Amino acid sequence: MSKAPNSKEWPLWEVFVRAKNGLSHRHAGSVHAADSKMALEAARDTYTRRMEGVSLWVVPSNAITASDPRDADELFAPAEDKIYRHPSFYVIPEGIKNI
Amino acid sequence: MYTTELDKQQKSAAPIAEDPEKLARFEARVAADDFIEPNDWMPEAYRKTLVRQISQHAHSEIVGMLPEGNWITRAPSLRRKAVLLAKVQDEGGHGLYLYCAAETLGTSREEMIEALHSGRAKYSTIFNYPTLTWADIGAIGWLVDGAAIMNQVPLQRTSYGPYARAMVRICKEESFHQRQGFEIMMVLAKGSAAQKRMAQDALNRWWWPSLMMFGPPDDNSPNSAQSMRWRIKRETNDQIRQRFVDATVPQAEAIGLTVPDPALKWNEERGAYDFGEIDWAEFYAVVKGEGAVAKERVAARVKAWEDGKWVRDAAQAHATKHSMKAAAE
């Protein structure tokens, strides 16, 4: 983030771990590495020392585009008044089954 | 441990005028136990306190590998050696989780490493004590990691998301550290007279430094109130210290070791142990770098960094060559 222009620091990679087949990869943290192969090796040593995963993704951190927290209302608030998207919005009389 | 304010600012910098509306919204969120995430607005003082606390914590994990690393080649059995290697590797991992968390606040890894190597950055005073015997490895796991757990468990709910998440991982892993240490002490305490003496001697030397790990008493911890309000800290130094004493004394008794404090006494009324005065002059001397092996610790870190330079250079050269090749294709 505050990397000096002449910095020799290795790029940052975000690490995603799949805990087991059937589950999606989940963000675990990040590592610094010179290239993707090294990032995978560092991620393996840093985030899977206790069988936490069966598969790893590493993604250059600067390749991620994130939404701005200041836009959170604009992006997510409109969903708040659309409770009719949830099944609990609909009242089904007692005695009606399998719905 | 690791999380107490070690460098007290001599003069407090001019307070930054924050937008009162943003500040109020921030404080309301924190008070409602909401987590603050990297790109959220936060007061400068909050950011600074966190960078200082998280980086000190990270440095402590990294420097903490040294006293134990000292015994890897001399572990008394292959089992003990495998366990100690795994523990030391965990400490390295903990340092990395925490450096990453600090980086999300806008500091860089190289700035933090530079601060550690130049001696500007502080780390837990506990690691400036030497590990003289094998029993010290037991005492460190049992007491030092035990104290770390006490301190870190409430931090899983600290208000800064990346720090809280790092703490969740660390706490999960730390419990093995404490148990393996206790097991070492237990076996020594059941062994020959000489082995039991060695265990008692280690407890004698590590007990008080472990109590100091929780930081200065509450009435002399000027930054605590602000950190509590911002939920960076969730409990006071004295509260956590008391909990540690109450948990640890019966463990020592169970394995036939004596806590080296003549004032230690169960207080029925409080439902807690009363214990003796801590020598804070010693604590502040060690914070200032007057611990037995303070210079050795930083020198060992600098040497490791410099000795590893050719590996970093080679990895960088390899990556550059391959990215150029890929660009040419």
Summarize the entry for a quick read.
With 99 residues, chain A is α+β, with helices and mostly antiparallel strands.
Determine the fraction of residues in helical runs of chain B and give it as a percent range: 55-70%
Q: Which strand order spans the largest sheet of chain B, edge to edge or round the barrel?
A: 1-2
**Straight-line distance between termini of chain B:** 53 Å
Give the low-pLDDT segments of chain B: none
Counted beta strands of chain B? 2
- Compute the number of helices of chain B: 13
* SSE class of chain B: mainly alpha
- Uncertain runs of chain A are none
H/E element order of chain B: HHHHHHHHHHEEHHH
* Percent of residues in β-strands of chain B: under 5%
Helix content of chain A: 10-25%
Would you tell me which CATH topology of chain A applies?
Ubiquitin-like (UB roll)
Q: What is the CATH architecture term of chain A?
A: Roll
* Coarse morphology of chain B: globular
String of helices and strands of chain A: EEHEH
What's the main sheet of chain A like?
3 strands, antiparallel
Determine the mean pLDDT of chain B. Answer: 92
Number of domains of chain A: 1
